[in-house]
Every structure is written in C-alpha cells, then in structure tokens.
Amino acid sequence: MKFGPVPVAEAEGAVLAHSVGVPSGRLRKGRVLSAADVSALLAGGVRDVIVARLEPGDVGEDVAAAALACAVCGNDQGLDITTAFTGRVNLIAQTAGVAVLDVAALEAINAVHPMITIATVPPHQQMAKGGMVATIKIISYAVPETDLARAVSLAGSGAITLARPVVKTAQLIITEIPGGAGEKGRDAIEGRLQALGVTLSDVVLVPHQTDSLAAAIAASTADIVLILTGSATSDIDDVAPSALRGAGGQVRHFGMPVDPGNLLFLGTLGDRTVIGLPGCARAPALNGADWVLSREICGLSVSSQDIAGMGVGGLLKEIPTRPQPRRGR
C-alpha cells in the first residue's frame, strides 16, 4: 500500500486518508475518491490530498476485517458479526453466556502484523445478550494478503466462542442460625441466575446442622444446587461440605484465591454441580462465586487448577465491613 500526499488530479480511485471540506459539504476519510469527488475538491481550491492506494497483493480494510472475523468465530459460536465499517467488525453475544477465548491463538494473530488487531473481553467473562465480546480492527486502509491469510489460519476452528447456558433450574438451600441473616441475599442470588436464564425453582431453609442440610441436598431435583450457610464455611470438614458428602456427593474443591469470595466450595451430587456460596454472595457486587457459577451454568466445568488460576486478577474490591482490614489505618 502506498500512503502519502498526491495532486488531487491524480487521486481518483485512491482512499482519502483525512476528511476534507468541499463546497457541497465534506468528504470523509476512508472514502474511495470518484471523478466527481476530484472535481469537487478542485472546485474547493484543494490541490493536494493525503491518500492510500492499494497495490497488488493488498486486501482492503473492510474485506480483511470481515474475513478475520469469520475465521475467529468459526461456525455457530453464539456470536453475531457486524458489517465491516472503516476496517472494524464487532462480535456480539447472541445470548447471555461466557466468553471462551483461545488466548494463545489470539496472541499469535495479533503478532502477525501490527495493522491486524483483535481486542477482546477477558477470558471467561460473563456476557449479557448484545454485549460486545471482541472487536476486530484493521488499523491501516489495507494489509498484505499473505499476512491476512496467516492470521486467518491461526484462528483454527474458532478462537472466540460464547458458551451458552445449559442449566435451566437452580435450588438455593439456606442454613439458619439464631440471629443469622435468614433469607438475606436471596434476591442477589436470584438476580445472578436470571442474568443467565436460570430459574430459581425453590428456596429451602434448614437448621445449620449437617444432617438437616444433607437431607435437603439429597432431596433436591434442580439442575444445580446452591448452598448459603448462616455461619461461614471455614474448613473442608465444616457443616456444609460434610453435609454434601453425607448426601452422597463429593467436594471437588474448597477455598479460592479470589477476594471477596475465599470461602467457596465446589462439589458434585451425581452429575449435578453443588456450590457452597461465600457470604459475600448475599450482595450483588462481583465476587469469586460469580466466576465459578457462570462457568458451571454454561457447561464449563471448573477444576481446582482453574480456581488456582483465578488468583492473578482476583483481588476484586475492598469492602468496609471486613472484620480484619487488609491494610493498616
């Protein structure tokens, strides 16, 4: 691609690099100049313009952006692809879900040519319907065809996808202690579920006792079981994890390096997920439970290794009510 100033008389067919005023209005940058445009520029006293002119082997910005967008999305990946405009294409979530990114592939694509770029939300970010998952931008007016082909090949079968919810119903079991929070937090938890299209089918209150909680867990018929204890779960042998085992389930992981949200545990009951929620889940603010809950609802099983990897970036927000402040006064 050639870029720079040329006499207006020689600019027909080139791409205007900067907007220019003419007697009838304004010619916007990115416009392919026609013979009429050249006449208008000359009539306005403009003698030189800065343009880009594609050469053999170049691909225009819009064509390049559209090709790369199709490549990174693959087939039926839950994303809408906007029409390319000024070298930009956005990938929009068709439904609520979780962004699934092939980070290595995307980093490799961004390293092919500095004018070929993809910017995304963080991996596994929860998305609402209509949310922008990524934007593909060809910075210059054209890129070499060979570089575009290389970038497209690195996308594989789809480097950006949207995992859509597979869970339909959830049950919330709340354990009660004298003077405890009771059903406080129900609305916040139900809001989280509704954002992912999940119905809170039932809320059960039981005493904060292993046997009572185990019976409630075993009786649940929901797709996913959430437990909110009246007293914080502080050990893998505390009431709630013990109750899950007593109901015939397993504890897959206890604790997480995300704050707020440390006191979460994750388990299974047959083929269903059971999540022991930390106390901070009573509030709508983002916490570690959100990261686990959204993935599990969207069919992305969370492993202990996944949870360990959440620590970097897992310091979410200081809260003034924390009993032991994390910094001195």
Describe the structure.
With 329 residues, the protein is α+β, with helices and mostly antiparallel strands. It has three domains: 43 residues, no CATH class; 106 residues, Alpha-Beta Complex (Aldehyde Oxidoreductase, domain 3), CATH 3.90.1170.30; 140 residues, 3-Layer(aba) Sandwich (Molybdenum Cofactor Biosythetic Enzyme, Chain A). It is built from nine helices and 20 strands. The strands form six sheets. Strands 16-15-17-20-19-18 form a six-stranded mixed β-sheet, sandwiched between helices. Strands 7-8-12-10 form a four-stranded antiparallel β-sheet. Strands 1-5-2 form a three-stranded antiparallel β-sheet, with no helix packed on it. Helix 2 runs parallel beside helix 4, helix 3 packs antiparallel against helix 4 and helix 6 crosses helix 7. The protein is elongated.
How do the strands and helices of this protein lay out in sequence?
Elements lengths: L1 E6 L7 E2 L3 E3 L2 E3 L7 H9 L4 E6 L4 E3 H13 L5 E3 L6 E6 L3 E5 L1 H8 L5 E5 L5 E2 L4 E7 L3 E3 H10 L5 E4 L5 E8 L9 H10 L3 E9 L2 H10 L4 E5 L10 H8 L3 E5 L10 E5 L2 E6 L10 H10 L6 H5 L21
Parallel strand pairs: 15-16, 15-17, 17-20
Antiparallel strand pairs: 1-5, 2-5, 3-4, 6-13, 7-8, 8-12, 9-11, 9-14, 10-12, 18-19, 19-20
Helix pairs in contact: 2-4, 3-4, 6-7
